[in-house]
Amino acid sequence: MNSRDRDRDRDPYEKIFPAAPAPSRGFARTWWGHAWLRALEDSALDGTQVKHGRRYARSGAVGAVSVRPGGLTAVVRDPDGTAHRTDVLVQEFTEAEWDRLLDLAVAEAGYIAALLDREVPPELAEDAAAAGVDLLPGIGDLDPRCDCGEWDHCPHTAALCYQMARLLDQDPFVLLLLRGRGERELVAELAERSTAAAGAEAESDTGTDAHTDPDPDPEAPRAPADEGVPAAEVFATARIRPAALPPLPGLPQAPGQPPTLDTEVDPEPHLDVDAVEFLAQAAAAEAHRRLAEALAPGHADRPQAASLTLAEDAVRLTVEAGDFRVRSRLAAATGRSRADMELAVRAWGFGAAPGLAALEDDWTPDRTTLARARAALAAAFADGEAPVLRRVRARWTEAGTGRQLRLGREGRWWPYRREAGRWIPSGPSAPDPGSALEADPAP
């Protein structure tokens, strides 16, 4: 029987945690508890199932939890009382991974003290990850198994994961048990390695003293001091580049799914959880769009788009928002009525920021711009009867038709139509006024 088998005989390689009452606050308080839940939320394909699972856990649907190397198990009940055997599997560490992790823990005395105090130092997790040992699970590391028939995370496996986050908060050794070793075995091995490391250090110090001349001859020649590396050499090597750069990363198929904020705990006053979740999702979608542009051929040669103002960005977000309350808040934040915001959304749909500017920027062209506009109007209607247009600043209104042309600062013409006493955008812009006016025939 090897030492590992003996340890299995004497160490409880399975721990049973009784069912716990619903938490008064969130399920995780520690950074490693939140990391566990983030792995769940990032892995689940259906965020709705995760929300249902959190409600299950909060309602006390999770029974006693059994934790063992490689997985955890519990019976989770549906609201109608139907019981489901639920498992979540986690990859155990190999012997080589345990060796690297334990060596790292022994190298810093503070790491062992923190673990014994039921804390996981973030530096230990970072050092372990750098050594190729992921202490905490990541995307896809939580493998759900449930007899309800779902192949992805279901409310039952999600509820079990939420309950597990509470257990991890109380005792991070539970995570190490999942990875393959119990607390008593780990404490004994850490103590053994610490003793061996201290003995090796003492032996090294003694050996150094034994070979040191206690009374060196001051007249004896000394070894030349290390003069270092010339600065010119350092700067010369900095200009060396690899023969070929690594390939660019591929574009993800879709934007990432931000974690849900529906924790069933009353939010702070004046915090709109739905609005924050929408902004997080919109930011992920915008990041995905920009990455797609950056990876597209010829991106470096194209001019960079101007940054949006807060008022412009609010309209862009309103275009993406489906929630009426979020749209209303965006309108109020920019000083627009709901009707004004809907008009701005329509203008954005025809031409993004330039289209919005044509709606809201009532500007006056200078003499040179006005002369070019008049020449464009004359050329556009040279072959037919020119409409009667009356100009006010950069807007030309056709008499008796309820149609209008607006000249944008970028030099394009935007068609407008008068409805219910308001001028509304009626189509995309055109480089000449004739095309813009023809795109919106007179009623």
Give the secondary structure arrangement, pairings included.
Blueprint (H helix, E strand, L loop, with lengths): L2 H8 L4 E3 L13 H13 L3 H12 L6 E4 L2 E7 L5 E7 L5 H13 L1 H8 L5 H9 L12 E4 L8 H16 L2 H6 L4 H28 L20 H8 L34 H23 L14 H11 L3 H10 L4 H23 L6 H14 L8 E4 L2 E4 L4 E5 L5 E7 L2 E4 L7 H6 L5
Antiparallel strand pairs: 1-2, 2-3, 3-4, 4-5, 6-7, 7-8, 8-9, 9-10
Helix pairs in contact: 2-7, 3-7, 4-5, 4-9, 12-13, 12-14
Describe the structure.
The protein is of the alpha+beta class and 443 residues long. Helix content is 47%, strand content 11%. The chain contains 16 helices and 10 strands. The chain has helices spanning 3-10, 31-43, 47-58, 95-107, 109-116, 122-130, 155-170, 173-178, 183-210, 231-238, 273-295, 310-320, 324-333, 338-360, 367-380, 433-438, and strands at 15-17, 65-68, 71-77, 83-89, 143-146, 389-392, 395-398, 403-407, 413-419, 422-425. The strands form 2 sheets. It has a 5-stranded antiparallel sheet. A 5-stranded antiparallel sheet has the order 6-7-8-9-10. β3 (71-77) and β4 (83-89) form a beta hairpin.
Poorly predicted segments = 1-11, 208-214
Structural class: alpha+beta
- Major sheet details: 5 strands, antiparallel
Helix/strand order, N-terminal first: HEHHEEEHHHEHHHHHHHHHEEEEEH
Task: Give the number of helices.
Answer: 16
Quick summary of this structure?
The chain is α+β, with helices and mostly antiparallel strands. It has 16 helices and ten strands. The model is unreliable at 1-11 and 208-214 (pLDDT under 50).
